[in-house]
Amino acid sequence: MNTPITSAPFASGVVVYCRAGFESEAAQELDAVAAQAGVIGFARTERNSGFAEFVLAQQGAPDALQRLLGWSRLSFARQSLAVIGQFKGLPREDRLTPLLATLPAGFRVGDVWVETPDSDASKPLSAFCRSFNNAFVQALKRDGAMDPGSPWRLHALFPSGERCLLGLALIDHAAPWHQGIPRLKFPREAPSRSTLKLDEAFQVLLSKSERERWFKPGMSAVDLGAAPGGWTWQLVRRGLHVTAVDNGPMEEHLMASGLVVHKREDGFRYQPRQRVEWMVCDMVEQPRRVAERMAEWLAMGWCKRCVFNLKLPMKKRYAEVQQAFAQMQDSAAAQGREIEIRAKQLYHDREEITVFAQER
Ligand SMILES: C[S@@+](CC[C@H](N)C(=O)[O-])C[C@H]1O[C@@H](n2cnc3c(N)ncnc32)[C@H](O)[C@@H]1O
Q1: Catalytic residue selected from 141, 185, 304, 311
Q2: Fewest Cβ atoms nearer than 10 Å: which of 48, 77, 108, 295?
Q3: 230 annotated binding-site participant
Q4: Please, are residues 353 and 344 in contact by the beta-carbon 8 Å criterion?
Q5: Is residue 188 part of a domain?
């Protein structure tokens, strides 16, 4: 039996998970996206907590919030939940009862995830989360509050043992990974750890159907700033032919695949002879310079789509990202075109974000 969405409890706000140290960017983004969507409230954060909140001026419907302030719309959020309960001073001997009391009678969830933010302070709670998760599931089953057909997943986020934010996620609109982190194993044959960044970008920024359609053996790609070849390796793994542009050396095993041509050229000047399916770029440069170059590749039709990294070592990181995106849209608009941009600070990104772009 499907749980009707209308039976969900009201939400007091939204909580997003983010990289520790980037709470301010996550909050600025929540403020900006909420303002665009006409959602009234304010964002708040605690430094290095690994999460940011948007507090609503008036309680709202969780399903509407999931659509307006959802995970996929936010670059600095790994997960986004509608908050239905906030608890401080939870008693150690019985944390469950107050949490269970938040759920209205008859409301059912498909799953429950007990999580901590990805912060140093919360790490020691991992074992507690696992055992509390089991207890939570048992209690909900006992109360008849679990239904595999429900569109909702319940999340209990514990920044500390006594504090909990209870949230709801519409399963189809939320990040499908615990803590919003896809667990990727480093492939030993890959030339560098940055390989995980591009793999994660494909998992997070593309849908399953896009991955199936957009990577086919025999397709071609260009990798700007390719050495030693971690990103090229991901493309080769999917059967693509890659032109790797970098003055630095490429890893020998990768070159032996026969699918890579290495060009020792400047990535800011290189032009392909023919249109390629993919261009990827991991050159360390100012975001605006990279964005300008990406816009040029799309405008000239040199690639169908691209993935690139924007390094953010500066203070005003959110403003810098917005500036780079505006610049890309402006240069496309000047030619009567429009660019679709999807961006995320990935788990494997440090002071940077990863962006997917294509012409609409
Ligand atoms: C972060 S590393 C790339 C790592 C690579 N994505 C991997 O997975 O192994 C940045 C690379 O960009 C290259 N690079 C920087 N500026 C460049 C330019 N103007 N043209 C070509 N390559 C450049 C550097 O030589 C360096 O190898």
Answers
A1: 311
A2: 48
A3: yes
A4: yes
A5: no
Q: How far apart are CA 186 and CA 207, in angstroms?
A: 22
In a domain, 185, yes or no: no
pLDDT in tens, the chain (360 residues): 444 444 778 999 999 999 999 999 999 999 999 999 999 999 999 999 999 999 999 999 999 998 899 999 999 999 999 999 999 999 999 999 999 999 998 999 999 999 999 999 998 999 999 999 999 999 999 999 999 999 999 999 999 999 999 999 999 999 999 999 999 999 999 999 999 999 999 999 999 999 999 999 999 999 999 999 999 999 999 999 999 999 999 999 999 999 999 999 999 999 999 999 999 999 999 999 999 999 999 999 999 999 999 999 989 999 999 999 999 999 999 989 999 999 999 999 999 999 999 998
CATH number at residue 162: 3.30.70.2810
Atom of ligand 1 nearest to the CA of 231: 8
Closest C-alpha among 258, 203, 253 to residue 230: 253
**Total number of domains in the chain:** 2
Question: Which ligand 1 atom sits nearest the alpha carbon of residue 192?
Answer: 9
Q: Please tell me the distance between residue 266's alpha carbon and the centre of ligand 1 in angstroms.
A: 10
Atom of ligand 1 nearest to the CA of 267: 20
Which H or E run includes 127? helix 126-142
Domain enclosing residue 285, as ranges: 195-359
Task: Let me know if residue 190 belongs to a domain.
Answer: no
What is the best residue among 236, 242, 284, 290 to mutate for testing ligand 1's pocket, by most ligand atoms within 8 Å of CB? 284
- Distance between CA 166 and CA 69 in Å, rounded? 17
CATH of the domain at 306: 3.40.50.150
What's the 200 CA to ligand 1 centre distance in angstroms? 19
